[in-house]
Specification:
The radius of gyration is 20 Å and the shape is globular. The chain contains nine helices and no strands. Helices cover 74% and strands 0% of the residues.
């Protein structure tokens, strides 16, 4: 037992996990208690995230009051996630990358930059809409960006980082699990859009999940993920009943390779950590 604790302690130190500053991983009781609390936090905030659109649609008729409610909701949601989610960091210090990881990361940032520029260009039509619609679309995109990043790349990421802490590829597997769950999360859109569109959306969302997970790992925070997610969602489509993509062949041809590339990046990054 003592050898196992020493091994686990060495593992945490080698990986610079920021959560190790909040949790004594050698104390199994404390670790389990914190893990359960984070799971409950994830469940409660997921329920709140799914409930607030119902409130704004059916219980608040005035447009201005809706916008004010969403703004207040986002502030409270963010404060709760920051306070009870322990940390938005993955590591407690900067991790230096080696040549292979640096090359792949450079390619990643080139693709990310291209995606951001394309989103800004294609979504510029938003500014041609009336002012109140611009505000509405911006709030919808902002709520998705803030809530989904905290739920999937924040709290859920922390949950699996703790749960898989003894696995030497815990960062990689955490990224995979959170990205897959993020994609499957969009199954809820079946209530208001066709199955084909939803399948296309799931494939895209998984790839986006991998992209944003790697961004959280590299930036050691969540703010840049929120910005990229906001730019991705800030389009007139978010205000429609069909937010998916029915062209599954195109989506698969583009975003499945992206997912594979991101898994390779994350795996090599994690393998580099194991060598430290």
């Amino acid at each position: 037992m003592e050898k196992e604790k020493q091994k686990e302690g060495r593992y945490e130190k080698r990986h610079y996990l920021a959560l190790a500053d909040q949790i004594d991983f050698n104390d199994q009781k404390q670790t389990k208690t914190v893990l359960v609390k984070m799971i409950w936090l994830e469940i409660i905030l997921q329920i709140c995230y799914q409930a607030y659109p119902f409130v704004t649609k059916y219980l608040i008729g005035n447009r201005v009051l809706k916008d004010v409610f969403v703004a207040i909701y986002l502030i409270v949601f963010t404060m709760a996630a920051l306070h009870f989610g322990l940390t938005t960091k993955v590591f407690d210090k900067r991790v230096k990358t080696h040549r292979a990881v640096k090359v792949l990361t450079a390619v990643y940032f080139a693709l990310l930059g291209l995606m951001v520029v394309m989103n800004i260009f294609t979504h510029s039509m938003v500014f041609k809409l009336p002012g109140h619609k611009i505000v509405s679309i911006a709030l919808i995109a902002l709520s998705a960006a803030i809530c989904e990043e905290f739920l999937f790349r924040g709290i859920l990421f922390n949950i699996f980082t703790v749960a898989l802490r003894k696995n030497k590829y815990n960062i990689f597997w955490t990224s995979v699990i959170c990205s897959v769950l993020f994609g499957l999360f969009h199954l809820i859109n079946l209530f208001h859009q066709p199955l084909v569109s939803t399948i296309g959306q799931i494939i895209f969302a998984m790839a986006l999940g991998f992209i944003l997970s790697y961004l959280r790992i590299l930036s050691n925070g969540i703010i840049f993920g929120i910005i990229v997610h906001f730019l991705q969602d800030c389009s007139p489509q978010v205000a429609s009943s069909n937010t998916g993509n029915s062209n599954i062949a195109f989506v698969s041809a583009v975003y499945i390779p992206v997912s594979i590339f991101m898994m390779i990046c994350t795996y090599l990054f994690n393998r580099q950590l194991n060598k430290k």
